[in-house]
Amino acid sequence: MDKSFVLRGNICYSKNMRELHTVPRGYLVCENGRSAGVFRELPGAFKHLPLEDFGERIIIPGLIDLHIHAPQFSYRGLGMDLELLNWLDTYTFPEEAKYKNIEYARRAYADFVEDVKKGPNTRAVVFATVHVLATELLMDMLEASGLVTMVGKVNMDRNASPDLQEESAEASARATSEWLADIAGKYKNTYPIITPRFIPSCTDELMRALKTIQAEHGLPIQSHLSENKNEIEWVKELCPGSASYGDAYDRFGLFGGSAKTIMAHCVWSDEDESDLIEERGVFVAHCPQSNTNICSGIAPIRRYIEKGLRVGLGSDVAGGSDTSLFKIMRSAIEVSKLRWRLVDRCDTPLTVGEAFFLGTMGGGEFFGKAGSFDEGYEFDAVVLDDTNLKSPLELSLKDRVARIVMYADDRNIDAKFVRGTKIL
Questions:
Q1: Are 93 and 164 in contact (CB under 8 A)?
Q2: What is the DSSP letter of 237?
Q3: Distance CA 102, CA 134 (A)
Q4: Is beta strand 261-265 parallel, antiparallel or unpaired with respect to 148-152?
């Protein structure tokens, strides 16, 4: 399929954290699945390419979710009166145990994939469950959707329910190796990622085994970090020799450095831990909805941004209730205002432009060159029709994009491209 073409419309994308760039009625060129740039007038070199004119509609990069739990989609909105650890025991572990039944997994994952495909997200980093067959099924479905994803078979050999916990570190590592062998060379848009659930669910023996597997295959890593105060105290009990929660991963080589790593939440990371995050180049997945939904607290994202940490956004379904990154952008802005007003007056609120950057270019860095229309970036684009958001005002293109973010209205999606292929 030819992946070279031109789109015309009202184009908006981030060039960096501070600059939200707009080109009204501009031209966006895709060459071989990558952006060749945005132009106010179409250069002669591209005039031979097929052109699709979207009129007054808005064209933005695809949105990127750095942290989502596919098996938790089924119980979004439930248990929001509980804190993290009780919520895991009451809802998460019993639900995830059901994915041993492949037919249940098929029904549940079909709902999840359909929801994400029809939304504004084009890429996601996904937790599955401990079950190899169900994880492979999810990867098959995501590949068929056209989305670009990283998917992790979860590892947990302690502190889970008996019907979910893997029987030993050896068994968990063996299942992970079998999973990687099964999927080797199978997909174009779907990739594996090493996934220790979090320190409380993984023994030292398992962490060492996962590092061996990670190094052998050169895979990225995803997990959770410093989300909840009770969780942090638990890690201190389990790992008394570690200087911090982050250090408990780092001592096994599972915290950035040569292994590209995402840590979700980082709500309570202190200066020493955030220094380690910076030193190791770990990505922070800010999950604002679950900050509030499961009572963890508000992550100091302004401090992380000013420190120069790599930050993107995560929906954290089902800790978060929405898969749409528009809604996560809005939540990030809202909770940042509460943190500024109620916690730390030095942590100024996020602007719409900054939240947009985090949900596109910021998270896109984990995938390489994704999340922008600058030349050389992979061509992920979403076309938005905001005519249903009526106003008598003469709005600028930036104002129209701001309203889409703050309304978070997924009915606006008119078309969607991933790596130069139109999937909606």
A1: yes
A2: H
A3: 6
A4: unpaired
Residue type, 388: N
Question: Residue range 384-411: average pLDDT?
Answer: 92
**Phi and psi for 70 in degrees, rounded to 5?**
-60, -45
Burial class (CB within 10 angstroms; exposed 0-12, middle 13-18, buried 19+) of 337: middle
| Per-residue confidence (pLDDT) for residue 1, from 0 to 100 | 53
Closest by CA to 417, choosing from 208, 123, 178, 157, is 123
DSSP E strands in 170-258: the ranges are 190-192, 195-196, 221-225
Average pLDDT, the chain: 97
User: How many C-beta neighbours within 10 Å does residue 189 have?
Assistant: 17
Q: How many CB atoms lie within 10 A of CB 308?
A: 8
Tell me the pLDDT tens digit for each residue of 1-15. Answer: 579 999 999 999 999
Q: Which of 237, 225, 232 is CA-nearest to residue 287? A: 225
- 4-51, pLDDT tens digit by residue? 999 999 999 999 999 899 999 999 999 999 999 999 999 999 999 999
DSSP codes of every residue in 150-180: EEE-EE--SSS-TTTS-S-HHHHHHHHHHHH
Residues 6+ apart with CB under 8 A from 350: 301, 302, 332, 333, 336, 358
What value does the mean pLDDT take over residues 362-389?
97
Q: How many residues does the chain have?
A: 424
What's the whole-number mean pLDDT along residues 182-208?
98
What pLDDT, on a 0 to 100 scale, did the predictor assign at position 411? 74
**Cβ distance 267 to 298 under 8 Å?**
yes
- For position 410, what pLDDT does the model report? 73
Q: Name the region of 100 (left: φ>0; alpha: ψ -120 to 50; beta: rest).
A: alpha
User: Which stretches within 29-92 are classed as H helix?
Assistant: 84-87
SS3 state of residue 92: helix
Provide Rg for the chain, Cα atoms: 21
The tens digit of pLDDT for each residue in 213-227 reads: 999 999 999 999 999
Mean pLDDT of 180-187: 98
Helix and strand tally (H, E) in the chain?
15, 17
Question: Distance between CA 336 and CA 316 in Å, rounded?
Answer: 17
Is residue 68 within 8 A of residue 101, CB to CB? The reply is no
CA 31/CA 5 separation, integer angstroms: 7
Q: Within its chain, how far is the Cα of 192 from the centroid? A: 14
Closest-CA residue to 313 (of 283, 281, 358): 358
At residue 312, what are phi and psi to the nearest 5 degrees? -135, -175
